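Consider the following assembly input.
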Amino acid sequence: MASFPKNFRFGEFVGSGIQLIFWILVIVALVGLPLIFIILFFVQLPEINGKVLTPYLFLTSILYPQIAIPVVGNLIHSTLFKVAIFPGFTYGALIAAATIFIERKFLAKMQLRVGPLYAGKIEGILQLAADGLKLISKEIIIPSGADKAIFWAAPIAYVATAAAVISLIPAAPGWVVADIDVGLLAIFAILGFFPLIALLFSWASNSKYPFIGGLRALHQMIAFEIPFILSALSVVILSGTLNLTEIVQSQIQSYWFIFFLPISAFVFYISSLAELERIPFDLPEAEAEIVAGWLTETSGMIYGLLQLGSYIKTYALAALFVVLFLGGWAGPQIFPKELIPGYSGPMIYSATAVNAIFWFTVKTFGVIMLMLLPRGISPRIRIDILLHTGWYKLIVLAFINMFVALALIYGGVLGPGGLLVR
Amino acid sequence: MTSIEEKFEESKKLGLQIVKESEEDRLMTLSVGPQHPGSGHFRFVIKVDGDYIVFCDPDPGYVHRGEEKMSEYRNIIQNIPHLERPVIHDSTNITYSYSLAVEELIGAQVPRRGQFIRAIASELNRQVYTLYWLAIYGIFLGHSTMFMWPTGDRELLIDLLEALTGARVTHAYNIPGGVRNDMPEGFKDRCLNQIRYLQKRFKEYEDIFYNNPLFRQRTEGVAILTKEDAIKLGVTGSVLRASNVPFDVRKAEPYDIYNEIDFKVQYMKTGDCFARSYVPLLDMQESCYILEQLLDKIPSSGEVRAKLQPNPKGPPGEAYRRVESGRGALGYYIVSDGTPKPYRVKISVGSFRNMLALPHLLIGKRLADMPAVYWSLNYWPVEADR
């Protein structure tokens, strides 16, 4: 016997259905269509049958879907797409989300646990979404006496600064938001903002533990900034350019720089761990000593944003490692030249680009895994040992490999017309 | 002037002060606990000059339950369940010395099999406590794997104790006159299996934690407690043994069947944080050998509990007995006035005595050393408050 509510009225059912359709139409008309037009504003519209496609004519693609293909093709080459989707913010945020999930499962397996398990049926795959929803719904508590303007601005600035690093990293040939000649220098200039934000935020919190944490962050990041830059400098010596795309090109022409500069790669890896405040260098957030360091007074989405920022930063530095030492997007061609054999219409698919993106992502995840590994096997380092490591040991190591790089250039092994240049 | 300021003045008179008077305003006062992730139910006020701690004032008492006063209003047997509350992770040992003292008062003799089972439960429970302590030491130093591994392995021992006593953590197993019930069937083999597994795991702990260069850097040579200071401050247990004093109550004043067991007192000579963190692991390894002997020598059958009168009471008098717990000597001083209720119960715990060494060790160290020094003292805040 079918069951339905006792006060069921067919008229009400139809009425609610009409209401639903009405709201869908209103939302599509007021939000959806303007959004499409705004996006189309940024896209170079193609010429079809002798006349230029206008945004109004674009709506006829509901009837003739084939005219949408060149529009989409142009869309994914527009600046808007590069900034917003790939290789910009969305791609970085997605990799950050994947990093958080992989970190939790990976660490759990290392520690004989199961990790996230319940949210989303399959191995807790939706745990991150659940956590995000929880953080959004939580109250944001601002300590009394806090500098409200900076307290609100710092998390947003943190995410924005992390995203600014992504915009300079080439994910595939031509796939970079800002392909500038001083790319590497710009990245280090942007990374220099992070200790400032940490210090401002900790100062704005008006609390003791955040203050100590902020000062620790400042000390740590400055101590590791110099070996960080020096290790990248030997790459610049080998490739002869600061442009990241050209650095990758010069690696494709010879060999990956990690084979010539293993010490630099090691120094870069250690320094990026310190830059990211990951264990064993998580002193600014050392729980047993200074509660949560400069994150002590954060709550709700302020904490969420800072975490998102730090994971986007993880992606950015891992990608930078790939670009500098692991040959960027270089890798054997594994995708077919044609997606559909025999089809010769307008194409969006490009085998080289997909291949490059695939290898870039795989390498980046490899480096991210390497960055997650110390969390399972290492305790926290002490601040004086950390500063000693940064100022004395790593700088010397970075210099050693810089001399190796100079010898390779002047010995005629690498550089223009070198022995190993193909 | 607050009381903390007065104490600061006192510490200056004792010659502990490092900063000159004119520079005092650069000190920052930090209240570590009771809401601090690195403190437990305990607070210590520290003053830092930059990164250096120049003043430390332990302030226990946040979980004071009045166990000693409560004991005066209950019968000897009724006292057992609440007396194990101060340190539930080591509940067999804290009732062990109480039972010994009461037995001395009322003149009861524990059957031989009962003595063996008591010792087995005591050794197992000390390992449970020490694994938990080790886990927290790991997370204090930021080593999350060292938190998860001992916590997981501790669970196996808890299952073993559950089979033996019927409860997971608060066993109420030792009672005056013996133990509550006999061992279950097959317990011996299960226990031996568990010991072999643990001995394997101890080597893995050494690999991942004790031999880690960063752990060594953070603990070796940090906060050295010399032999003289250790004796002067009255520390006990693993802290004392780490300072080159091979003192163990099981060896010095053997109780029950411990004089029949062959074991070494594990100690180290350096007296630094590393020694204090390593001696408990050596103790656990030694405890495994003790357990093997106990399981080998235990009589196959017999009584486990002496028959006592329904409401046991002894002649007026006093008794003091102590055992080696996870944190050191744990003694009970009981005065009886001839009634079933004790006239006075005084608990002497290792935690409180180890805590007294905290200001001595912490002053002059870095803020980053604070968790490493604090938890190496084998201190259980709830037990110190009683």
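Residues 84-330+348-410 of chain A form one domain. Ask yourself how this observation constrains the way the partners meet.
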